[in-house]
Amino acid sequence: MRADFWRYYQLRWVGGRVAGWGLMEVADLAAHLPAESATKRALGGGWLLDEQLAALVADRLQVLIWQKTGDGQKGKNVPKPIPRPGFEDDSKGTIRGSRMSVREAERWAKRRRAAQERRAAVVPAADGLVEYTTRAGAVKRVTPAQAAAYERRRQ
């Protein structure tokens, strides 16, 4: 900001202050620095608004042209956008999971629904404790927070 103040206002910083100017006046000057100033570029990620808009137009035009090609009709080889400062794409684009049969999916969904019903049916007694049925079938009196923790471990 010191360089910008010298470049645009011919004001020198001395000891963290601009001599002869109050704090609010200096704040006003800083807030109204031109868009091409080093301070505004650093705060905006290095790109001016018109540069960002030009990149956006180029990206959209690239997609429009791609859609007219054979690859675009098949949804293959999607064009990559122009990289913007501060927005690096570090995603792999891959979601991992495991296969399961229809029966396994039905059992999984049944367990999830049962757990949700148990949570909905939990009503604390006058002493603040609830009844929780363990996997072994034993009934324990625990706090609602403990019951929720047990349910999370069960899933």
UniProtKB/TrEMBL annotation:
Residues 71-102 are annotated as: Disordered. It comes from the Bacteria. This is Uncharacterized protein. The lineage of its organism: Bacteria, Bacillati, Actinomycetota, Actinomycetes, Micrococcales.
